[in-house]
Structures are given as C-alpha cells and as structure tokens.
Amino acid sequence: MEEHKHLHGAGKSSFSFVDRARLLEAIGLKKGETFLDLGCGRGEYSLLAAKQVGPEGKVFSFDLWTEGVEALRGVAKKENIPWLHARMQDISGNYPLDESFVDACLLSTVVHDVGRDHPEMFEEIGRVLNPNGRVAVIEFSKVADTPGPPQGVRMDEGELVSHMEENGFTHVSTHELADFMYLAMFRR
C-alpha cells in the first residue's frame, strides 16, 4: 500500500454509493460499444460497463495506481472478461487509443482532482471520443457531513458544467446518483 500514498484518492471509490441502474440508463451504454474509464481504481465501474457492452464491446481502464489496476486485471481474468483492458496509464493525456474510437468516457470523482490542473486531459478525451460520443462525470455534491473529498475541493454542478464547457464540452443532462453525488453528461 505504500506505493500509492502519493496518488490522491487512490483506493477510494464512489461505486458503493451509486445507483447503478440510474447510472447505466444515463450513460446509455449499449452492447458492442467502447467504454473508457479514466482513473478506474479497482475498476468497479469498468466491470459494470464490461457486462453492459458484452464481448462485442471493449472497455479500457486507466489508472496510475498499480494495486488497483492489478486487482482489476485479476477480476477480469477470473470472470473471463477478455474485452476489458486495464493498464497503468497517466490519465492527464496521451492515451494509447485511436482517434474517434470511444463511445463513452467515465470520469468518476476525477475532475475535481486531476481535471482542474490538466486541460490536456480534456483535449485527449476529445481526440479519442467519436463524434456521437459522450462523457459521464460523477462528482460529490457540496453537502456537509457526507462521504467524499473535503468540501473545499468538491465541485457543485454549476462549477463542473462551467469547467467542462471551458474545455470544449456541452452539458446534456444531470442525474442524482445518491443524496450527495451526481452524474453530469456531456458531448464534445
């Protein structure tokens, strides 16, 4: 566990708090699509997406946290999900994916952390996203005394939409995933 101490938020996941049916409905992930999970951690969202897209689809899961990526690879192997590709990857840019390749990209509790200081991340997402692709962003609301990052780093919906629009994305919709979490959908 020592190795990931320098990675902010490594090992923490919002997955247990999320209404999964509402999440999948909002993202609209279909069989055969390509899904990109940036900052995947142990990959709970990636595994959910892999079941949704099926063997006709592809899931790419990137994170710098070695323990999380290795755990995800182990689960994918054990559950026989060869269309899930987990890799150690800096999510701030330069993804090993072709242009216009991705149907849906997930940033779960990433924008408040990595996204504030790395506009190149959004350029790269725009590069790999197909013209009809969508970006799903999960963030913690600024609700006191709830799980998640400190209040000072959380982004309310207005801040997130503004930030994403500054980086070339258009807000499509917002969905409550828990009393203190939301999902905002964007297009390029």
Helix/strand layout:
Blueprint: H1 20-27, E1 34-38, H2 44-53, E2 58-63, H3 66-78, E3 84-88, E4 102-108, H4 111-115, H5 119-128, E5 129-140, H6 157-166, E6 170-178, E7 181-187
Parallel strand pairs: 1-2, 1-4, 2-3, 4-5
Antiparallel strand pairs: 5-7, 6-7
Characterization of the model:
This protein is of the alpha/beta class. The chain has a single domain, classed as Rossmann fold (3-Layer(aba) Sandwich), CATH 3.40.50.150. The chain has helices at residues 20-27, 44-53, 66-78, 111-115, 119-128, 157-166, and strands at residues 34-38, 58-63, 84-88, 102-108, 129-140, 170-178, 181-187. The chain has a seven-stranded mixed beta sheet with strand order 3-2-1-4-5-7-6, with helices on both faces. Strand 6 and strand 7 form a beta hairpin.
Observed structural traits:
single chain; 188 residues; alpha/beta; Rossmann fold; seven-stranded mixed beta sheet; 6 helices; 27% strand; globular
Strand order of the main beta sheet, please?
3-2-1-4-5-7-6
Number of helices: 6
The count of β-strands is: 7
Distance between the termini: 37 Å
Quick overview of this protein structure:
This protein has 188 residues and is an alpha/beta fold. It has helices spanning 20-27, 44-53, 66-78, 111-115, 119-128, 157-166; strands at residues 34-38, 58-63, 84-88, 102-108, 129-140, 170-178, 181-187. It has a seven-stranded mixed beta sheet, sandwiched between helices.
